[in-house]
Amino acid sequence: MKSIKDHLDLNQRKILLRLDLNVPLENGKIIDTTRIDKILPTVNFLLKNNAKIIIISHVGRPKGKVVNKFSLWPVCKDLNVKINTNIKLITKNLKEINSTDLFSNPDEKVIMLENIRFYSGEEENSSEFAKHLASFADVFVNDAFSCSHRAHASISEIAKFLPSYSGLQLSLEVDALKKITSEIKRPITCIIGGSKISTKINIIKNLIPKFDNIIIVGGMANNIIKYKGFSIGKSIKEENCDQIVEDIFNLSKKVSCKIIYPEDVAVGKDFNSSAEIKSLKNISREDLILDIGPNTIKTINNIIESSNTVLWNGPAGYFENPEFAKGSFEIAKKIVEKNKAKSIYSVAGGGDTVALLNNMGVINNFNFVSTAGGAFLEYLEGKELPGIKALN
């Protein structure tokens, strides 16, 4: 995979830059600019090298139709300020545009095409649509790792028609995940949360042979607690998952990977309750398990203390209610403490985990934080991502 840094001459070259600017919006206002901030190094690098930039991105799921609430205009305004360059948003139908229509003003440096998912050809991975997009530029750059698990026209198909490179952020994402899955310093620990164990079973199975410890928390741990013979009350669980749990434990025994799950929990009667700490044997029929307990926190932090590498995907509890945020906060604090002492390599990823670290103000105290959700998880499963494959 070649980085755009490897391109010898970008002067006045038209660069089709695929970004993921799918930021959360509320009444037309951006709530979290993390994804915009992450791609600034690539945009600034291209500008410094006197390139002409054509930005492609999407917001939401308009399903091939123009939906005004999914316009990229709020993103365009924010990026305008951050790079101190006037960005022109192209709202005209792309099928009616050719390359000579773009940069009609020679002083223009950056233009942004309106939401690429307004066109059905994008998600259909249309070769004709990709070829038309490619006709706008000299070079294609993918800096949207978080979209690279999608076989879409502006992600994978377009690379057939232009010299193609990775952006700086995409290169960082891939390098960080390669490091944690292959160039590892042991002991290595994975903390994995989320609500459904079935959606992450392939990740867990792929990581067990490579990791020393797999710590399972969040809603998905409830299936393990139930499998071990304890009541989980009214807690979230998946049906017919005993075989999945058994497979995890059997595989872990073969390769000497420890599976850690909660030994005590914080429960409530509903999501707005105060927390009550209980051992597994004392969980009642009316309880909702919403966080890990102090003994589990201590166990996890002891494992982190003895680890040289940590991968974290998924909070330990329902952190939206501060009563059930202690597990996630204490895990984050321990990793940050080790990071500051330069005694651990830490990678975190997934939307909820990023939101948690942002809320705590510690997102910059991890070695790497991935903004990707599905792409992050599919990479950990060992899948080949269409967007990355296209660059290779």
Poorly predicted runs are none
- Please provide the ordered H/E string of secondary-structure elements: EEEHEHEEHHEEHEHEHHEEEEHEHEHEHH
- Strand count, sense and closure of the main sheet? 6 strands, parallel
Strand content: 15-25%
Average of pLDDT: 92
Highest-level CATH class of the largest domain: Alpha Beta
Instruction: Give the overall silhouette.
Output: elongated
Query: CATH homologous superfamily of the largest domain?
Result: Phosphoglycerate kinase, N-terminal domain
When the domains are counted, the total is: 2
Secondary structure: helix percent: 25-40%
Radius of gyration: 23 Å
How many individual β-strands?
17
Count of alpha/pi helices = 13
- CATH fold-type name of the largest domain: Rossmann fold
First and last CA, distance:
5 Å
Architecture of the largest domain, according to CATH? 3-Layer(aba) Sandwich
Arrangement of strands in the largest sheet? 5-6-4-1-7-8
The helix/strand class is alpha/beta
